[in-house]
Amino acid sequence: NDVLVEIEHDIQRLTLVAERFSKIGAQPKLDATDLVSFIENYTEYFKKRISTKVSISVSQKHSGTITAMLNSDLFGWVLENLLKNAIDAMGGEGKISILIFSQANNAVIDISDTGAGIPKGQWEKIFEPGFSTKRRGWGLGLSLTKRIVEDYHSGKIMVKRSEVGVGTTFRVFLKS
């Protein structure tokens, strides 16, 4: 029974992915969203699909609701891409920490991993279409992530810090 429920969830997600790509190019509708609940629910869904050798924790710096203007379909894809990249960077084993907080008029999300890290000279390049450290793939994941965050959500994404052999933290700013 659990398997059927999960298959149904996956079918719903595949439908969402198709809808997301049809939305790129059109201006998506943004809704005021409880960011902590959204990310907690998303990571719970995601955890069921990854190795138990990867732990994902979600926390917030201050109590209270943190709201951001989101298109949940597109922003779900942003989270998925950042989490999958973190898992790849960790070789499928390690710890991902997500910290959410408010700063000025922004909601801020820090996604940290215990992976391979990114040399400082590549921090900007990783967002360019075609840039990839993987043997396969198109190198579009982070450029599309940046486009969704910046063009559709009027936000910002950056490498907050990264140390080779220690890990990386991506920071996302969203309008609250």
Tell me about this structure:
The protein is an alpha+beta fold. It has helices at residues 2-23, 35-47, 72-89, 141-152, and strands at residues 31-34, 54-60, 67-70, 94-103, 106-113, 156-163, 167-175. β4 and β5 form a beta hairpin. The radius of gyration is 16 Å and the shape is globular.
Question: What's the structural blueprint in terms of helices and strands?
Answer:
Blueprint: H1 2-23, E1 31-34, H2 35-47, E2 54-60, E3 67-70, H3 72-89, E4 94-103, E5 106-113, H4 141-152, E6 156-163, E7 167-175
Parallel strand pairs: 2-4
Antiparallel strand pairs: 1-3, 4-5, 5-7, 6-7
State the main characteristics.
single chain, 176 residues, alpha+beta
Helix content: 25-40%
Give the percentage of residues in beta strands: 25-35%
Q: Give the class from helix and strand content and strand pairing.
A: alpha+beta
Largest sheet geometry? 5 strands, mixed
Low-confidence stretches: none
Distance between the termini: 39 Å
Main sheet: which strands, in order across?
2-4-5-7-6
Give the averaged pLDDT, no decimals.
89
Alpha plus pi helix count = 4
Helix/strand order: HEHEEHEEHEE
Rg (CA only): 16 Å
The tally of beta strands, per DSSP, is 7
* Mass-distribution shape: globular
Brief sketch in words of this structure:
With 176 residues, this protein is α+β, with helices and mostly antiparallel strands. Helices cover 37% and strands 28% of the residues. Helix 2 crosses helix 3 and helix 3 runs antiparallel to helix 4.
